Predict the structure.
Amino acid sequence: MNLLERFNTVNPIDIGMPFEYFPDCRYSLVELMANKQFSIKDFHQAYCWHSFEYTMQGSQISHADDVQLNITLDRKMRGLLLYKDGIDTSPIAENIQRRYGVQIHKTDFQSFDAYVEYLLRSLKKGEPVLSTYSLGYVPTRRHYKKVFGLHSICIVGYNAEHQSFDAIEQAKKPKFSISKGDLFDCFHYLLKEHGACSVFHLEQTHQPKPYSELDFLEMVEFNISNLSDTCSSYGLTCLKKFIADLGLYLESKPEKPIFIPGSWVFSHERISAIRFIESYVTENPQFGESFSFESLTTVLQDLHDKWLAIDFYSEMGLQTNSNKFNQPILEILNSILVKETEALELWRSLSLCFERARQEAC
């Protein structure tokens, strides 16, 4: 009798669905788990970063494969995979711990049997499991068996008849099923590429507490520093360079559709910044009297919509294998640059507002 045959079916544990636009798949699931374990409704004040970083493999843009360009356009953030003594110390995790009192612990598995037994025993106790995974083994995604990026999922149930697991992820269709074969292959992919398959559990170190003005200002200053950076790899300078590079590439009239790896994060970031700002102003209404937060959130909402349109056209291009969306993508990017520049000026105005408030308090 194999290990899976020793356990009965565990019906999917209801923990709700993750917020679709949290800018990181793992922490959107941590938010769900914290709600179930500690009745913390949301992580509205966990993320307010606004940044860019651009890298290219080669001297000019080209297709790295049938799907993606040879570039990465991403946020600029000090490590998203940082651990000390088994504790998650990434910037997002530190914000979650500081504001909401939720600390994230990591346990690594090098044995598949030990990992599966942990999953089954946890589910039997009514405890869903937050685990690392790979996009290449999510059968409901276009990445299935094609793109094998690091991912996070929550395993919530077990079907003994099919020897499969019920799982959810941050996606438009969050629910999916993991076959025994996919789980085995994914585990060994993670073991080879990352040294282990990891699971995470949460500890509440203190009750949620108000976010300090200094903490908020620190994030505002980070946004200004990155967006105004003159280096060609960062901020609006790199966004402008990327758009120029892409324009040159499109002049060659490539037959393939373009897909920009990493760009999804920007629509998510803008919504998360709005969540943060609105909840912060609710707790600190005096700042709403001295700064037009509505101006900033309106620009951020517009940017969310535009970055989402980039994702939509990219996906449509891939689904239809058509290059007819390439030029619209470039046009939207040019309009995004204008709005991102406007956002920088509003972040600067917000910083000045904080400075005036501090001076008046002295």
Q: What stands out?
A: Residues 326-361 form the longest helix (36 residues). The chain has ten helices and ten strands. The mean pLDDT is 91. The domain at 3-53+77-204 is CATH 3.90.70.10 (Cathepsin B; Chain A).
